Amino acid sequence: MDYSFKLAGDQSVVVKFGNQMNEHTSQTVQKLSKVIEAKAIIGIEEVILGYTTLLIHYNPLKITYRDLLTTVDLLIKEMDLSKFKGNNTIEIPVLYGNDTGPDLADVARINNLTPDEVIDLHTAPFYSVYFLGFSPGFPFLGGLNDKIATERLDSPRNRVYAGSVGIANNQTGIYPVTSPGGWRIIGRTPISLFNPNSAKPFLLSPGDTIKFKSVTKKEYDEIIVKQD
Amino acid sequence: MVIVIFDVIKPGLLTTIQDLGRKGYQKYGLAVSGAVDHYAHRMANILVGNQENAATLEVTLIGPTLHVNETRTIAIAGADLTPYVNNTPVPLWHSFTVNKGDTLSFKGYRSGCRAYIAVAGGIKVEDTLGSKSTDLISGVGGYFGRGLVKSDTIHAYEWRPYKKYFPRKLSPELVPTYSRKVNLRIILGPQDDAFTKEGIDTLLSAEYSVTKDADRMACRLDGPRIEHKIGADILSEGMFMGAIQVPKSGKPILFQAGRPSVGGYTKVGGVITVDLPKVAQLKPNDCVMFEQVTLQEAQEWLQVQEKMFKILQANC
């Protein structure tokens, strides 16, 4: 396995597994993050997953850079990817189009499809959660069908509502909190991805698989009522 | 028991409750947040006998006006925004007592950008995911996830004065000076190889100025373009405090405490930890120059600083 270490300031290091964003690389990153956390190595404070990288925050007063590299090297060599186990499969109900998916019609038009075809193509795959970032609980997903890949909006919206499901190039994702954003919004989920005051604050974890399901306005409203 | 320490008369430009940050959730996309200037935050706490991680009020450029509701030892550290109690100026980097009925206010900016108000016992708010710090991006933590506004009431933990230790004053050699021209020591990486040799030379020789676009998340600089070899985009990866991100514009952006957990642009280097407080105190039109140092040097300086903090905290 090819990898390299890159300095990231004096308290973190990036472990980089090549330049290719794909399932295998993402599983390698996820596996390393799990192994590091399971070992609870003194001096390693936290890790951040990326598409092909794992950033490791460490405390140089507790572990030297040299010892850190030696330790991580060893962990990578011992890693057994054949035992990779994803976590859960989570179904995400989505109300596509209209007010909750203002860009569905454009995504369809740009790709020479009907809105229903976009919905079919978006709900068909099982998407892997590669990692979370950007805002709390925001999943970076692998598996979007190229037929519905669409460029970002020319100018981002000031306000994208929590739960909005969007497309940006060959990525699809869900906005967990209301924030500005430039993704093309095709629908909205009534379920919450980030609940800071609950026992499980984040709905998703790296390694989860998600499946979008198209729901009606009635079903959408019922789920909202049930959550409250 | 509910103890109201301050009533907010005027909130100032941006006053938030901060500690040393929310750790361990960046892999879920939650920002660390916390005090932008750890040095001033920690010192303010030490001066009032608190643990370093106790919550303080982070004050930005224009300070708040606070009505004091409870007699208590407090300390202000960081930027000099001309603090007053009633009609009397009060010193920075000192602890002193404010009395019930006093008014704490700030008469105007003199140097630096951010000041920290620590109260003995610590500011009291519920922990959100292990921290009291305010994360303005996701609106969690601190005071309802937002900056203070008029009529907010700030609570404090119970505290029994043990007078023989107070008031306290920080040794002058430990008090930083905030100049308008700052030299920042950096380590190259993780994407320094995405830049041309000329690009790196520009970074290490040119003078940059701080733009108006500077906040808790990042400090944007203006100056000569740092030239990329091919492009400025990378596959999104983890961010770190002090990261010097260079997007397509070629103008560096210094990432601070309120940064998002991941970013998709090249990072030419990182400001070393002991120099991060200098970044925290930058304000628009200040000048910045970068100097390359080695990892070993940076970590030795950090070790010296932390030894000093350990001694201060032990005598606290």
Index terms:
heterodimer, A: 228 residues, Cyclophilin, seven-stranded mixed sheet, 25% helix, B: 316 residues, alpha+beta, 2 domains, seven-stranded mixed beta barrel, globular
Spatial sequence of strands, sheet with the most strands of chain A: 7-6-13-5-12-9-10
Q: Rg of chain A, please?
A: 19 Å
Topology, number of strands of chain B: 21
Instruction: Tell me what the CATH architecture of the largest domain in chain A is.
Output: Beta Barrel
Q: Output the radius of gyration of chain B.
A: 20 Å
What is the count of DSSP helices of chain A, taking H or I runs of 4+ residues? 5
Q: Please, could you describe this protein's structure?
A:
- The complex is a heterodimer of chains A (228) and B (316).
- Chain A has helices at 23-39, 65-78, 104-110, 115-123, 217-227; strands at 4-7, 12-16, 44-49, 53-58, 89-96, 127-132, 139-142, 157-160, 164-168, 171-174, 179-181, 184-188, 209-214.
- Chain A is an alpha+beta fold and 228 residues long.
- Chain A folds into two domains: 4-83, Gyrase A, domain 2 (2-Layer Sandwich), CATH 3.30.1360.40; 89-227, Cyclophilin, CATH 2.40.100.
- A seven-stranded mixed sheet of chain A has the order 7-6-13-5-12-9-10. A four-stranded antiparallel sheet of chain A has the order 1-2-4-3, covered by helices on one side.
- Chain A starts with a strand and ends with a helix.
- In chain A, 43% of the residues are buried.
- The model of chain A has no long low-confidence stretch (mean pLDDT 94).
- With 316 residues, chain B is of the alpha+beta class.
- Chain B has two domains: 3-174, no CATH class; 181-309, Cyclophilin-like (Cyclophilin), CATH 2.40.100.10.
- Chain B has four helices and 21 strands.
- Chain B is globular, with a radius of gyration of 20 Å.
- The mean pLDDT of chain B is 95.
- The chains are: A alpha+beta (228), B alpha+beta (316).
- Chains A and B meet through strand 2, strand 3 and strand 4 of A and strand 16, strand 20 and helix 4 of B.
